Amino acid sequence: MREDRTINQKLNSIEKTEKPNLSPINQSILKIWGPSHLQGNINISGAKNSALPAMAATILSSGVCRLRQIPCLADINTMGKVLSALGAKIKHNGNTLDIDASILNTTEAPYELVRQLRASFFAIGPILAKWGKAHVPLPGGCAIGARPVDLHVKGLEALGAEVHIEHGMVNAYISGSKTRLQGAKIVLGYPSVGATETLMMAATLAEGKTIIENSAQEPEVEDLANLCIAMGANISGAGTKTIEISGVPKLHAVDYTIIPDRIEAGTFLIAATITNSEITISPVVPKHLSAVISKLESVGVKIQQETSDSLRILPGESLKCTDIETQPYPGFPTDMQAPFMALLSICSGTSTVTETVFENRMRHVSELNRMGADIQVKGNTATIQGVPKLSAAPVIGTDLRASAALILAALAAEGETTFQGIHHLSRGYEQIEVKLQKLGVKLQRVDSVER
Ligand code: UD1
């Protein structure tokens, strides 16, 4: 279906019409005084994008699941609310979640919550596989693109589900006289992370063998497979383009620790690069960061693996331009595109950044330009003419990673940046203010301001 749209056309039309939304929720601001010099060690939190599907996967289990290293984030709270609304019981203890989703009161997820968090749609797979029916609202578009769910729906149909979409609700049933989904061969038209996860979870309890071809290879997909395997599922090939799942009748409880967040780790590596600083980050899985590390090295920094799960970044002599194109894993991650562009804005020479995954992911550009960057966007490609320095300005974040980009720019900029959009950051960066302060950044949150 991705052939149906032209990213360039969508991007152009959206850029011309959309302005940042200044709702009351945006009123808190973060003041950052730059330029910063960072030093020290940073603890990387558990991966948000592993934690969210892992929470949904607990629906498959017949017992209480313990998930460890779950970051305290707004998105995790929203997913918790979705599970609670379905009837699950959740206990939160620091970064550990105990979830009993073995019995649900309802198979219908509430629209008010699903619309806030697209990943909660992924629960449709486990609900349907375990209870034979699921009613989950269409999550709708978001700040970075239209984000349809057609691949999830087609895949569930291939597994034998009957799916009707009415009044914005996806109603899925195991059809006919069958009580379980039926294993099938599914070829995804695009290696969607969410569709791979939805279908892999659904197939764990299906009758027979499922093969998902052109599956997403992201580390979070592999982590979810490992969680399901620890619950008794029979899955091979996760992390490659072909995943095979032999369905089992039942999955049991699990105690599972999720992987570190490679996007948070990449963001801190950029923070060190943009401020010419030396820091250590851990825990990380260095392999998960290969594409980002290789681009940071072409910019001019040195990255050393200190132990099996820690990286030290050392400043280079100067920052040089490079070109980036976002791709599904193992390519350069779309979630690092905006943060990396903040860095490229002060790298000497001309860089290009091409976004191929989402059609509306350049909304940080105008704000970076307000901070002195020289970036022009044509279609889905940004051309960045490196400037010697950025200058502080009042800026507004429009989504999670765009906000991270502006914070990174503020670290390098001279003067006081006032950043509006903390609620976006708290969706994906655990204790971001505390971590930045620990590294030596001068910042202050101001809770309510008139603009
Ligand atoms: C996940 C990540 C997100 C990341 C993205 C791409 C989570 C919770 N979120 O999102 O941080 O940016 O992967 O790495 O894990 N698409 C369709 N039809 C579908 C599904 C997707 O056309 O049914 C399109 C999307 O609109 C998008 C592209 O495929 O253009 C990639 O989306 P997908 O990989 O599904 O991203 P998410 O799983 O939503």
Cofactors, ions and other ligands in the entry:
uridine-diphosphate-N-acetylglucosamine
Broad structural category: alpha+beta
Q: CATH class of the largest domain, anyone?
A: Alpha Beta
**Please, what is the CATH homologous superfamily of the largest domain?**
Enolpyruvate transferase domain
Count the DSSP helices.
15
| Unreliable stretches covering 5 or more consecutive residues | 1-26
Helical proportion?
A: 25-40%
Number of strands: 23
In the CATH hierarchy, the architecture of the largest domain is Alpha-beta prism
Observed structural traits:
451 residues; alpha+beta; UDP-n-acetylglucosamine1-carboxyvinyl-transferase, Chain; 2 domains; 4-stranded mixed beta sheet; 15 helices; 23 strands; disordered N terminus; binds uridine-diphosphate-N-acetylglucosamine
